Amino acid sequence: MPLDWRSKLIHSQATAPEGFRSLATPTYRGSTTLFTSAADVTDHWDQEHVRYSYGLYGTPTSFELAARIADLEGAHYCFITPGGQAAIALIYLTFARAGGHVLVPDSVYGPSRALAERLLSRLGVETEYYDPLVGADIRHLLRPTTQLIWCESPGSVTMEVQDIGAISKAARQAGVVTALDNTYAAGVLFDAFSAGVDVAMQALTKYIGGHSDVLLGSVTTRDHGHYQALGDARQLLGMGASPDDCSLAIRGLQTLAVRLDQLERSTLAVARWLEQQPEIARLRHPAFDSCPGHGNWKRDFAGSASIFSVEFAPSMPRDVIVRLLDELKLFKIGYSWGGVISLVMPHFNLRRRLPNHDPSIVRFNIGLEAVGDLIADLEAAFSAIR
Ligand SMILES: Cc1ncc(COP(=O)(O)O)c(C=O)c1O
User: So what's the pLDDT on residue 51?
Assistant: First the structure.
């Protein structure tokens, strides 16, 4: 049928030559995805059975990213979400129900705490905070209504490294689901599934994206029932992820190993330098004895990453600490971490039950600048306030 030029714009017969082979994964965009026959029409999300039914559930680009993350983490299934916080929300909304009880470490990422307090409470779910170093004693906190034990290791800002094996074992014995925020380990420095975790998540925004220009999350599991429950909830919540962002994450994966190696070395060097300064009372870096749960890190982790915190001496006024941070030139002040640029962030009013004090904590994220320049930047800032 000869077409009007207006229709040709939309139903073009022109095609590019075949045979192009590239090293890069193509970026497949698409909301509508086509069925070959009206008889095949379905609105199911499960790519295991229906492959492609709607762009929201995934395109080859997002499925490739998901498959790569699942493979790296030793999981069987992976969902990509629009961000790390979306991954957290997906897990809570899948496993927590009205009348239920969830256990959350006191050191949990702030917006994860806020979700429990401001959203789950409205849905009739009770949140109880536990000491992140509780280990096997978590069993004393389990109730008949406990539906989920959340873990995050190391904890946000205060960096407590949890005994995930002991917590998962107690949970399994009681038939309770465990979920782990495994972002610090980039899904590779800590083996969540060997430790017995049921569901793991990462903010791919951090080390996988790696360049502070993409927001994505992942949720992984080995369990087919959990996969079905998570997939249903994800469809209902409309949590699609941009294929363009997925393509950036796939690119990021290729350099993850070299970035993590360098970040570990530079971070250890900066942390060692900071530890020597008289203004610093305590270093919270998983690879140092002074970090709560350091023994768990030594036993369970294959390395350390790019964030750590310092507690300033109580004699240091907060306005002086603020001046110190403002003096820094290479370290920028901003949220998030895992990129190539060094960051610093004060955390003065942490909502934590820390024993009887409210220390002035600052978190550092070390980037890929030359480590000598980073230390020189710190030296200049400390000199300026002394
Ligand atoms: C430990 C942890 N989990 C989850 C998130 C949330 O990730 P996103 O920023 O992609 O929502 C963050 C972000 O800072 C985080 O630090």
Answer: 87
What pLDDT shows up at residue 82? 98
Residues 6+ apart with CB under 8 A from 249: 65, 204, 208, 209, 214, 216
Q: In what order do the strands lie in the sheet with 280-284?
A: 280-284, 307-312, 361-365, 343-347, 332-333
What per-residue confidence (pLDDT) applies to 224?
A: 97
User: What integer pLDDT is reported at residue 1 of this predicted model?
Assistant: 87
Q: What is the pLDDT of residues 335-374, one digit of tens each?
A: 999 999 999 999 998 877 665 567 899 999 999 999 999 9
Domains and CATH numbers, the chain: 38-254 (3.40.640.10), 256-385 (3.90.1150.10)
Rounded to the nearest 5 degrees, what angle is found at the Cα of 328, between the Cα atoms of 323 and 329? Answer: 140
CA distances from 92 to 63, 115, 231, 233, 314 (A): 23, 9, 13, 10, 37
181 lines ligand 1 (CB under 6 A): yes
Nearest CA, atom 9, ligand 1: 84
pLDDT number for residue 354:
60
pTM: 0.97
Q: Is 212 in the pocket of ligand 1 (CB under 6 A)?
A: no
* Torsion over CA: 162, 164, 165, 166 (sign): positive
- Positions of the chain with pLDDT lower than 70, given as ranges: 353-357
List, edge to edge, every strand of the sheet that includes 177-181.
77-81, 217-221, 199-203, 177-181, 146-152, 101-105, 126-130
| Ligand 1 centroid to residue 365 C-alpha, Å | 14
Nearest Cα residue to atom 13 of ligand 1: 336
